[in-house]
Each structure stands twice: as structure tokens, then as C-alpha cells.
Amino acid sequence: MSEPPSAPPVPPGPPSASPVPPGPPPAPPATAAPVPLLRRPLVAGVAGLLVGAVLVGVPMALLGGAGGPDFGGGGGGSALQAPGAIADLRPMAEVRRAMPGASAQQTDQLTAQDRKSGQNLSAAYSGAPAVVQSYSDSDMGNIVVLDAVRAESPEPYVQFEDTAMLQEARPVNQLLKVGPVSCVLFNDFTAAGQTPGPEATHVTYCQRTGPGLTVIIRPGAGDLSHDPGKVAALVESAWSALS
After folding, report:
1. Which residue in 17, 166, 168, 202 has a CA-CA distance of 20 to 30 Å to 95?
2. What is the spatial distance between Cα 181 and Cα 183, in angstroms, rounded to a whole number?
């Protein structure tokens, strides 16, 4: 029996498609447009500070620049010499020297500390004549520091407190005017409706300022630190001696 004829060969198909040519190279990542200088956070913050300072009248000397001769600047005017006494307070180094057991090293350190502080105060006012002197009573129960500089300064400022919302009898941070003297106070919290005690008031400092002179008294230890009226009187006494 004869074998069936084999199937005819299958003709080859069309040639395979040629490889797809590579596409264009990917575009480089987009580069952000440069941010204008005044829109950069740091520069904008500095610019806003300077503009704001001009608008509210803050002297540039307090922002680190050179102040003018009338407000925060310095260099002019006569030298300042601390008064020999303010009311019943005398220079602390002198009081310490008269106490039993005092050493020359201790009193020299007190004098050097005040001298260096005066140099720092002068530098803060662009070289205006300045003096810093520590004072105390005879037993060093009350201690204050006098800062004086031949330059005008801004009036003190404290943050506003809504006493009704905070339910407090008076602000914790308070600015009190005693005639021409401004006193910055820190008060212990007293609830609304209660009366704060005398020791709940703490005088941070009292200041008087005007063209060509600023006088500040900073109370330290003692009862004076609770009595803004007495600290203000010390400012007035020093002002009279230095004017």
C-alpha cells in the first residue's frame, strides 16, 4: 500500500517587523524658576523686620545698626559719673569694704563687674557715655543696679493681657507709669476678685528717658523689689544727679 503524499511545505511568512527605533531621550527634570529675593523666607523676614521697625519707630540702634545721635545712638555728650549715693543707698563695693571680713579681692571684683557692665551698655548705644553702678543699704538687705547712658531710649513695652479672659485680678506683665518714670512689673497670678499681697509685685526695672539721657534702676534683693513707687523715686533721684 502506497504512503499518502506528504503535506506541501508551508511557505515562509513575511519577515518580522523591524525593531522599534528608540524614542527621543527623556527631557531633563524641570528646573524651578528662581525665587525672587524678597520671596525667600529668610530675606523676607529680615526685610519685614526692618520695614516694620521703620513703621513703628523702633530705633535702628536696637536692631544692631548705628543709631542716630538723638535716639539710641551715641558718642556725644559729657562723661557720666555715678552718684556717690542714691537716697540711703551707697555703692555696693564701698558698703562691702566696710563690712567685717571683707577682702580687697571681693571689692575689686564688684568694681570691675560694674565697670565692664558700663562698657557693655555704652557699646549697646554705639559708644554713648554710660555708667553702671551697684548700690546697697548698709547691711546689703536692699540691692539695686543703676544703668545710665547719654542717649534717649524707647519707652518700655509689655505684652497685652486680656485679664477678663484670663480671669486674673491684674496682668502678670504690667507697665506702670509713676510720673515721668515707667516701671515694668512681674506680678504673681492673682485670681479675679482677690486682692494681691504686697509681695506679689516684683519690679523688673524702672526707667526715665529723654533727649540725651536714660536712667534705669533694677532692684535685686530686698523689699525695694516689691515697691515700684520707691524704685521710681530712686530713678528720679539719680536723674536729678545726672542731668
Report:
1. 202
2. 7
Residues 6+ apart with CB under 8 A from 53: 60, 63
* Partners of 184 in the β-ladder: 175, 205
Coil vs helix vs strand at 134: strand
- Nearest residue to 147 (alpha-carbon basis) of 160, 166, 134: 134
Q: Are 128 and 54 spatial neighbours (Cβ–Cβ below 8 Å)?
A: no
Reading the block at residue 139, the C-alpha cell is 547691711
Confidence class of residue 76 from pLDDT cuts 50, 70 and 90?
low
> How far is residue 134's CA from residue 220's CA, in Å, rounded to a whole number?
10
Asked whether the beta carbons of 148 and 214 are under 8 A apart, the reply is yes
Here the cell at position 6 is 506528504
Q: What is the pLDDT of residue 63?
A: 35
User: How confident is the model over 34-55, as pLDDT tens digits?
Assistant: 443 334 333 333 333 333 333 3
CA atoms within 13 A on the CB side of 242: 35
Residue 240 burial by Cβ neighbours in a 10 Å radius (0-12, 13-18, 19+)? exposed
Distance CA 184, CA 235 (A): 13
Q: Residue written as cell 506680678? A: 187
Rounded to whole angstroms, the Cα distance separating 198 from 179 reads 21
- Is-contact 129 150, C-beta < 8 A? yes
Give the gyration radius of the chain's Cα atoms.
37
Q: What is the pTM of this model?
A: 0.69
Q: Which helix (H) or strand (E) holds 218?
A: strand 213-219
